[in-house]
Structure formats: structure tokens, C-alpha cells
Design goal:
The structure is a single chain. The protein has a single domain, classed as Peptide methionine sulfoxide reductase (Metal Binding Protein, Guanine Nucleotide Exchange Factor, Chain A), CATH 2.170.150. It is 10% helix and 30% strand. The chain has 2 helices and 9 strands, in the order ααβββββββββ. It is globular and about 40 Å long. The structure holds fe (iii) ion. The site of fe (iii) ion has 8 residues, from loops.
Length: 134
């Protein structure tokens, strides 16, 4: 696994836009249909905007109709971590970058076969590295 990336709140604030900071470091959620990638169909690898960790392959992206980028699986299971999120009177599974602990979004069990997973991820937490892998 890649080395852990740890920075102070002040360092993250300097590195990120205020919107990215709010989503990634404060577990915020961008408004649906406002992000850069919900409608994006370009090939490539979606990386963590905080640490560059490869998170999701565009090949696993699908149109969920939710207004957030949605993926059926991560590039590798060890790129992310799941946390139980009990905020907002709901029990949800939060998805976090394993390398830098950035909040990415949530995962639900209503995705397409064969994984049936729907990783519902904020555009704000991602950076698309365009192009296909050989
Ligand atoms: Fe990260």
C-alpha cells in the first residue's frame, strides 16, 4: 500500500479550494448536478484531489441519475476505506481515501450487476487523469 499522507488542517486549507476543503476534510456534500464529473464520459483514472491516489477507473463509471459521479467499484479495494456514518438520521457507509483520509462520498447496494455497488462520489474530491491505461 502507498505511504500514508498526513497534513495539518492549515496545510490542507492552503492546498485545496474552499469547496474541496469543505467536502474532503469536513465531510461536506456538493449539490447534485453541480460537479465537474457527474456527466463526464472521458476515459481515465479518477484520483483523489488531495493526495493523487488512484481511486476509480472511468470504465466502472455509470449514469446513476443522481447528479454525482457513480462507480461500480474502486480501482482496488485497498485504495479506499469504509466508515459507518450515522449523521443526518441515516446509517450510511462513508467512503474515504485510504491514503489521506479524504471524505469521498458514500457507497450503496443498488448499483449495477455484477458488483451491485454504487459508489456515489463528490466530483469535488476527484481529479480525472485522462487517457487509457495500457
Ligand atoms: Fe487521498
Amino acid at each position: 500500500m502507498d505511504d500514508k499522507v498526513q497534513r495539518s488542517e492549515e496545510e490542507w486549507k492552503k492546498m485545496l479550494t474552499p469547496e474541496q476543503y469543505q467536502v474532503c476534510r469536513k465531510k461536506g456534500t456538493e449539490r447534485a448536478f453541480t460537479g465537474l464529473y457527474h456527466d463526464c464520459k472521458k476515459p481515465g483514472i479518477y484520483q483523489c484531489c488531495c493526495c493523487g491516489n488512484d481511486l476509480f477507473d472511468a470504465k466502472t463509471k455509470f449514469d446513476s441519475g443522481t447528479g454525482w459521479p457513480s462507480f461500480s467499484e474502486p480501482v482496488r479495494d485497498d485504495r479506499i476505506r469504509h466508515e459507518t456514518d450515522r449523521s443526518r438520521m441515516m446509517k450510511r457507509t462513508e467512503v474515504v481515501c485510504r491514503r489521506c483520509d479524504a471524505h469521498l462520498g458514500h457507497v450503496f447496494d443498488d448499483g449495477p450487476a455484477p458488483t451491485h455497488k454504487r459508489y456515489c462520489i463528490n466530483s469535488m474530491s476527484l481529479k480525472l487523469k485522462e487517457g487509457t491505461r495500457g
